[in-house]
Specification:
By secondary structure, the protein is an alpha/beta fold. It is built from 6 helices and 16 strands. Strands 5-4-3-2-1-14 form a 6-stranded mixed β-sheet. Strands 6-7-8-9-12-13 form a 6-stranded mixed β-sheet, with helices on one face. Strands 10-11 form a two-stranded antiparallel sheet. The two termini are about 35 Å apart.
């Protein structure tokens, strides 16, 4: 497969309703399939939605929202992902979707996870966000390294990370070491026109473009969408700002080739693996453009860089 059709799905879930959100996700996956998408990607914890309430002051309403968010979290073996997998198979497209993953043992903890689903209708794997960012730590648990994998697909090598995992470098480098070619950078969806004064904000375009350039890979950067009208009226006092989307697709040079976009839509672009090869020929950070005599990376005690005998 020389040309690959990439799709970033930018749409609002039905907040605090995983069943309705699943139905909506399936609608968009089917539409992406009709448009010929080989990969369709959603934003961070799209199912059942990003926990927008985390930056609000603690109150009875905050705790009510937190409890409801836990109730609506998704299990890997639950009916929601099974339904999405069936629709992915019908649509003939791989799907990468962010979920609030419920801990199956305690049912009291949630992870910000990316789930990789094949066009054959199988769950390839999941990646739990290693360290939630700032206020997210009040809702999400620390993830693990089990999902730091690159998946070999018929069109190329596929990977993904959540949001500010692109700012801490080593998770991304571990994927670069595995030769990622197409990467999903999932975001909650907020790109202010001017940089705010605070040190923590998404920087989704900056970090997605940087990763594309460093990895020599195409990056699908699907961003979430959450306007005031999407929030149940009871919980609107907890919404400090809106998530406005601005999804983009970026080439291996780090240049934006589609987007940013507004509103609910499917953003499409074509990828050419020959462009990936050109970029990696210029700079392979884990290969010819590296210094294995100076640096070493271990993942859970196992060496992933430099390659070769351990």
């Amino acid at each position: 497969m020389s040309l690959i059709n990439l799709a970033a799905i930018q749409a609002a879930p039905v907040f605090f309703d995983k069943a309705a959100s699943t139905e909506k996700a399936c609608h968009w996956i089917a539409e992406a399939g009709k448009q010929g998408a080989d990969i369709a990607a959603f934003g961070e914890t799209w199912l059942p939605g990003y926990p927008f309430f985390i930056e609000a002051p603690l109150s009875d309403l905050w705790w009510e929202a937190s409890a409801l968010y836990l109730q609506q979290a998704v299990r890997l073996d639950g009916p929601e992902l099974a339904q999405i997998a069936r629709v992915a198979k019908q649509a003939g497209t791989d799907v990468v979707i962010g979920i609030a993953e419920l801990d199956p043992a305690t049912e009291g903890s949630v992870y910000a996870s990316l789930v990789f689903i094949s066009r054959e209708g199988e769950i390839l794997g999941r990646h739990r966000k290693i360290k939630p960012t700032h206020h997210e730590r009040s809702v999400w648990s620390d993830g693990d390294a089990e999902g730091l994998k690159v998946y070999a697909r018929d069109y190329g090598r596929l990977s993904g990370l959540n949001c500010w995992e692109h700012n801490i470098m080593l998770p991304g480098f571990s994927l670069i070491c595995q030769g990622t070619q197409i990467h999903v950078a999932a975001w909650p969806g907020r790109e202010p026109e001017t940089a705010p004064s605070e040190p923590v904000w998404s920087r989704q375009l900056l970090l997605s473009r940087a990763f594309a350039s460093q990895a020599g890979a195409y990056v699908i950067a699907p961003a979430g969408l959450r306007l005031t009208e999407h929030v149940p009226e009871r919980f609107r006092p907890l919404s400090a700002f809106e998530h406005t989307g601005q999804s983009a697709i970026i080439d291996p040079r780090g240049e934006i080739i589609a987007g940013p976009v507004e509103g609910e839509t499917i953003l499409m672009a074509q990828a050419d693996l020959n462009e990936v090869r050109k970029a990696k020929a210029a700079c392979d950070p884990a290969g010819h453009y590296s210094r294995p005599d100076l640096f070493e990376l271990k993942l859970k005690g196992e060496r992933v860089y430099p390659p070769g005998p351990r």
